[in-house]
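From the methods appendix. Each design record in this collection lists the tokenized structure first, followed by the designed amino acid sequence. Records were kept in a plain field format so they could be parsed without special tools. The example shown here is representative of the layout used throughout.

RECORD:
FOLD TOKENS (185 positions):
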């Protein structure tokens, strides 16, 4: 049996990889579409395997490019499990919002994912790094030092969530092929 080609899914894949590619152009620290991309993937892909695989795969690809060609430090660092864990959680969060979430639900998902990313990744910095003592005071210092980055994350997550969800909704109104469950055979 021949598989169907979904214009919608191909478009979603392109959007996910384009969003991950935005990390490769100069930007304000932590002002990236990564959380928005993961939330978007979680909402838009009905196959949960794709919802996780595509944002995480796009992230790996952009990390490889950044680590090998840009910073020349390699792509792996001690915080990677925490970063990817936060991205996977954001995909999960998106998958729990339903097929047609409200703007309020999407905004809440974006805010929740920003907070979770901040908490988990900075916990990872504290646990695996040597900058801060392994005390509650050291953990607090780690979180305080990261607050400027959190502000940037909140702004970036808000802007890119609006752009991805709003832009795709507008495009789906214009082009029927992008609507959910429409398949070309």
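DESIGN:
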């Amino acid at each position: 049996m021949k598989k169907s080609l979904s214009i919608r899914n191909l478009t979603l894949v392109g959007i996910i990889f384009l969003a991950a590619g935005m990390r490769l152009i100069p930007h304000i620290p932590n002002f990236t579409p990564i959380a928005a991309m993961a939330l978007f993937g979680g909402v838009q892909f009905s196959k949960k395997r794709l919802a996780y695989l595509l944002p995480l795969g796009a992230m790996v690809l952009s990390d490889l490019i950044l680590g090998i060609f840009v910073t020349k430090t390699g792509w792996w660092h001690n915080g990677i499990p925490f970063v990817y864990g936060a991205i996977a959680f954001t995909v999960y969060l998106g998958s729990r919002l339903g097929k047609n979430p409200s703007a309020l639900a999407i905004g809440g998902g974006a805010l929740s994912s920003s907070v979770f990313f901040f908490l988990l990744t900075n916990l990872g910095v504290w646990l695996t790094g040597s900058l801060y003592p392994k005390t509650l005071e050291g953990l607090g210092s780690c979180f305080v030092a990261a607050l400027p980055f959190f502000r940037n994350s909140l702004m970036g997550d808000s802007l890119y969530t609006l752009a991805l969800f709003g832009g795709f909704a507008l495009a789906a109104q214009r082009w029927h092929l992008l609507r959910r469950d429409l398949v070309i055979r």
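APPENDIX NOTE: The first helix runs from residue 7 to 21.
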